[in-house]
Amino acid sequence: MNATKIRSTPTAAATATVPPDPLQALDRIDRAILRQLQTDASISNVALAAKVKLSAPACLRRVERLKESGLIRGVVALIDPKAAGAGMLVIIGVVLDRSTPESFAEFEKAAQKVAGCMECHVVTGEFDYFMTIRTRDSDSFNRLHAEQLLYLPGVRQIRSFMVLKEILSTTKFPL
Amino acid sequence: MNATKIRSTPTAAATATVPPDPLQALDRIDRAILRQLQTDASISNVALAAKVKLSAPACLRRVERLKESGLIRGVVALIDPKAAGAGMLVIIGVVLDRSTPESFAEFEKAAQKVAGCMECHVVTGEFDYFMTIRTRDSDSFNRLHAEQLLYLPGVRQIRSFMVLKEILSTTKFPL
DNA sequence: CTTGAAATACTACTACG
DNA sequence: CGTAGTAGTATTTCAAG
């Protein structure tokens, strides 16, 4: 009955400089909503409301609040890579020649334009960047490698890890 | 005017054993739909129809066909990791002790249960697996590392690459 | 095989208690 | 938060290209 109070009445810990875990600050219903929308957001609001045992307007208000709060970053359609003819995934470790701000900036600008680049991250350790690239097959990757990757600015070394099997690839957040 | 014919009249190349590119087999409108839905799928069908200059029913039929064909794998809400208190991303390279089917199977089963594991892939090269894990901060990752990662079955070595900056992280497919 | 116009059923959304 | 009402949308039907 006062489960919703958790949202409206922050605890002492929640008001500290570093909130412990924003997701834990949500009540059971909000978490159920997020679980559902992360799995299938094409569900209608009335159906969602029924699932979480709430009236439609109340449910809609919660969804809108979750969006406005920024917790829900967006609602998107996911395309199946295989069906789209890009069944091959390659993870690439990149080492730059020089570790200067200009070198990093130049590389990042170019990396984002690489066809099929899904992720690009600056990392600690023996690599400067990790990128993941979706492409069709080894032929198309070889072409991409020879024509684009090897010409990325400031690159000393590129190491490719071909993905043989995708065990897990999710956008879902643990709740 | 016969742009739509591409869908209904496969070319000789498309009937070959390996279709060249399923996305190229789509007409301009289907691609516009996919572009929009990959960016924001919370748009109403009438608004989408207006954007692609089609009547609402025709637009809806196309969307449904794209879903039934499997090209659209699903529509989901994306949660902002930072807002969810999991602003830290770590990429992990794993080397197994033995390269036996049992060893791989056992590891994969356990790896999927690791809290915050977003991706897990078998790769070629100096690692057996790459995993990406979302967690809150270095403290929580350290805990995860000590309590879960080090106890994954059959692991010889784990190398962690902390993500310092996420340059690009997209679910969008190039169209 | 696809489209668009009209009609119906359902849903989102608002106002209010 | 829920109920009731209104506005707008999804969905079906059907005629036409």
From TrEMBL, chains A, B:
| One protein family per Pfam | AsnC_trans_reg
Matches recorded under Gene3D superfamilies: 3.30.70.920, Winged helix-like DNA-binding domain superfamily/Winged helix DNA-binding domain
Top-level taxon of the source organism: Bacteria
The molecular function terms in GO held by this entry are:
sequence-specific DNA binding
Task: List residues of the HTH asnC-type domain.
Answer: 26-87
Xref: InterPro entries: ArsR-like_HTH, AsnC-type_HTH_dom, Dimeric_a/b-barrel, Tscrpt_reg_AsnC-like, Tscrpt_reg_AsnC/Lrp_C, WH-like_DNA-bd_sf, WH_DNA-bd_sf
List the GO biological process terms.
Answer: regulation of DNA-templated transcription; response to amino acid
Name by which UniProt lists this protein: Transcriptional regulator, AsnC family
- Which organism is the protein's source? Paraburkholderia phytofirmans (strain DSM 17436 / LMG 22146 / PsJN) (Burkholderia phytofirmans)
